[in-house]
Amino acid sequence: MPTVTMVGGGQLARMTHQAAVALGQRLRVLAERPDDPAAQVSPDVVLGSHTDLDALRRAATGSHALTFDHEHVPTEHLEALVAEGVAVLPPPQALRFAQDKLAMRTELSARGLPVPAFTVVESEAAAVGFGEEHGWPIVLKAIRGGYDGRGVWMPEDADAAAKITAEQLGAGVQLLAEVRVPLKRELSAMVARSPYGQAATWPVVETVQRRGQCAVVIAPAPDLDEDLAAEAEELALRLAADLGVVGAMAVELFETTDGTLLINELAMRPHNSGHWGMDGARTGQFEQHLRAVLDYPLGDTRPLAPVTVMANILGAPEAPAMSMDERLHHLFARMPDAKVHLYGKGERPDRKIGHVNVLGDDVAVVRERAERAAHWMSYAVWTDGWDPHE
Ligand SMILES: Nc1ncnc2c1ncn2[C@@H]1O[C@H](COP(=O)(O)OP(=O)(O)O)[C@@H](O)[C@H]1O
Ligand SMILES: [Mg+2]
C-alpha cells in the first residue's frame, strides 16, 4: 500500500492520517516539532522545516505523492522536487494560486471570473489612492503567508491605511488592496480532483467568520438560491480543471448583499469548511484528498443528514480550570450524538484546538447545539446556563 507525504504537522495532517489508517495507507508527515498534532499520531515523522529543501527531499523519498497541510512551502523548492521526479500534488503551477493572493486575483480576473476590485500596494500612496477611488474602508492583505485572518487589515481611512502599509512594507510583507465587499454571508464550494480528471463537489456550505477566522460551518448553506449553488459548484469544478488542481480544493466565496458571488480565495488542501463531512458526508475531505492524490476513483460526497453544523473549538482567553478530559465527559453526558474531534494542541486564545459536528433536521436547532457544545469545550461554560453539578 502507498505512502503519502504531507508537508506540515497540523490538524489537517492529523485528520488525513486518520483517513489513511482506514485505507491501509501510511501518511508520513514533515513536522517542525515532535508534539505537532500529526507528529503525535503518525509513526512516520520527518522532523524539519517546510522551508528546508533537504528536509522536503527526505520527506519525499520513497513516497507516492507529496501533498500539503498548508500553503507556505516556497514555490522554488516545489519546482526543484518536481524536477527530481517527486509527485507534488497539487502541482506547483496550480498551488501558486493558493499561495499568492495577487497571482490568484490576477489570474482569475484575466479568466473573466468574479473577484473584488484589487490592486498591488507598493507604497502608502497606492493604498491611500485605492481608498480614495473606491471608498473607505478598504481591505489590505498580505500577498503570501496569511491565514485565519492574520494578514488581513481593514483600515477605515487614509491615515490608518498609510500606517498599516508603512508598517507592513517596512517589515518586508508584500501587500494588495481590495474593496471591502458588502457581504450577505460567506460560502465555500469544495471539490476534489484526481490526476485522471475525475472531480466531485460537496454541497456548498455557509461559513461564519469571527475576527477573520472560521468559527462555524453550516452544510448545506441554508436557503441558498439553487442557481447560485449550481454556479458555485460549477465554478469550483471549472477552476479545479483549468488550474490543474489535484486533491481537495476549497473555493472561498462572498455572497454579496445584491445576491452575486465573488471569489475570495483558493485553498488547495483539506480546509476548515470541509470538516463537517467527516461525520456529515458519505466521504469526507480527508479520505477524498488521499483518493485524489493517489488517483483512486473518488468517493460519494452525499450528505448523511439534512443539516450538519461544524463548530470550531477555539482556545478561550484564559484556559478553564476544568481539564479538557472532564469537559469531554460532561459534553458526552449531555449530547451523546455530538461528534468531537480534538487536535492534541495546547489551549491558547483563539487557537483552533478541535471541532464539533452535529447532524439533524432543523438548521437553528442543530446550529445552537453545535455552538453550545463547542463553547462548552472552549470555556467549560454552558451558554444556556445549565450546570452539571446542580
Ligand atoms: N474584500 C473583503 N471584503 C469583506 N470581507 C473580507 C474581504 N477580504 C477578506 N474579508 C474577511 O476576512 C476573512 C479572511 O480573509 P482571507 O482573505 O480569506 O484571509 P485568510 O487567508 O486569513 O483566510 C474573510 O473570510 C472575510 O471574512
Ligand atoms: Mg480565507
UniProtKB/TrEMBL annotation:
Its EC number is 6.3.4.18. Gene3D superfamilies: 3.40.50.20, ATP-grasp fold, A domain (3.30.1490.20), ATP-grasp fold, B domain (3.30.470.20). The lineage of its organism: Bacteria, Bacillati, Actinomycetota, Actinomycetes, Mycobacteriales. Keywords: ATP-binding, Ligase, Nucleotide-binding, Purine biosynthesis. Belongs to the PurK/PurT family. Catalyzes the ATP-dependent conversion of 5-aminoimidazole ribonucleotide (AIR) and HCO(3)- to N5-carboxyaminoimidazole ribonucleotide (N5-CAIR). Catalyzes the ATP-dependent conversion of 5-aminoimidazole ribonucleotide (AIR) and HCO(3)(-) to N5-carboxyaminoimidazole ribonucleotide (N5-CAIR). ATP binds at K101, K141, E178, V179, R180, V181, E186, N264, E265. It is an enzyme of class 6 (ligase). InterPro entries: ATP-grasp, ATP-grasp_carboxylate-amine, ATP_grasp_subdomain_1, PreATP-grasp_dom_sf, PurK, PurK_C, PurT/PurK_preATP-grasp, Rudment_hybrid_motif. Residues 105-294 form the ATP-grasp domain. Homodimer. PROSITE patterns: ATP_GRASP. It catalyses: 5-amino-1-(5-phospho-beta-D-ribosyl)imidazole + hydrogencarbonate + ATP = 5-carboxyamino-1-(5-phospho-D-ribosyl)imidazole + ADP + phosphate + 2 H(+). It comes from the Bacteria. Pathway: Purine metabolism; IMP biosynthesis via de novo pathway; 5-amino-1-(5-phospho-D-ribosyl)imidazole-4-carboxylate from 5-amino-1-(5-phospho-D-ribosyl)imidazole (N5-CAIR route): step 1/2. The keyword ATP-binding applies. GO terms for molecular function: 5-(carboxyamino)imidazole ribonucleotide synthase activity. This is N5-carboxyaminoimidazole ribonucleotide synthase.
